Amino acid sequence: MGELFQLEKGRIGIKAATPGFFPLVTTGEEYLSHIEPHFFGDSICIPLISATGHGHASLKRLHHIEGEFAVGSILCACVNSSPDRVVARYAYYYLSACKDSVLIPLMQGTANMSMKVSDIAGVGIPLPPLTEQQAIVSRLDTLADKARQVNEHLDSIERDADRLLAVRFRDAIVDAPLRPMAEVAPLVRREIAIDPQASYTELGVRSFFKGTFQRRTMEGTDYSWQNLFSVKTGDLIFSNIMAWEQAIAIAKPEDDGCVGNHRMLTCEVNADAAVASFLYYYFTTAEGFAKIDAASPGTAARNKTLKAQDLMAIVVPVPSDSTQRTFDALQAKVAALKARHATIRQANDALIPATLERVFN
User: Fold this and answer.
1) Which residues pair with 344 in a beta bridge?
2) If you ran DSSP here, which 8-state letter would residue 187 be given?
3) What is the 8-class DSSP label of residue 30?
4) Sign, Cα dihedral of 237, 239, 244, 246
5) In this predicted model, what pLDDT tens digit does every residue of 158-190 receive, in sequence order?
């Protein structure tokens, strides 16, 4: 690398950068910006710091960039100084494919593992003729472009599906009666008697409407002070300290029998009045979430607490059972569509790494 590229550590701390016209390469997937460029040319940018830390060496991604740009101080800029011998994008593809064997072993340290610019200078790159390098780049770029087009097409379909849900929900709640949560989804506390010989799986709720997750499984003897409450499939769950950050979810079948502490507000939906997924969707809308936010007072983020009585006082639209179930069926179809898309995306995202491995191994 040292014979083919001019190597230099990035010159600007990410937090010290001033947004401007020129791209700023960081360890993230997207570029930031800076008011002035520090480098010019056909280049590769390689992170010097492990992506995971804690004594573990890893690299998530490298970047290829052309023109004028700035680079964060925790990356190495490799500007092509031998265009008659190497295509920078070819070297980028090679290093991306082989980073686990040629870059990661260079990282040293106990807590925050890193490598030096001088280490990268010694990395060797196989150099077929320029025409062959260009052919490899053309093949991989074409494949990457097709993969991008597929993902963009899937994104477009999902945006249309989300818009359809929004329109159908808007129509469903027109003139619908409003009823308090205490009537349609009352708070339930299914307290359990902790058995020291048993184990319990704690349930958590991710922020930004990202669903539930099973946090950990602990022995009954590990619970010395807190009470535990069981969760059932279909419960509408609110984290009382993170609801302001959209930590709201529906318990999945695999969550049945898990436990939560007093900070988890579990609401059992009255089947004669409402459908859980319909209520959940309401709280994802601007109108519904505004009520959650208003019921979570506090000045600092970590002090914004949703009180049970305030949650129960929130009024929600409750149209007819058939209207709710029709919308629920549509939600299920959209969820199934997104699940199929997730499988396609997974295969699509694996295409480039698999092709890189075949090309360079």
Assistant:
1) none
2) B
3) S
4) negative
5) 999 999 999 999 999 999 999 999 999 999 999
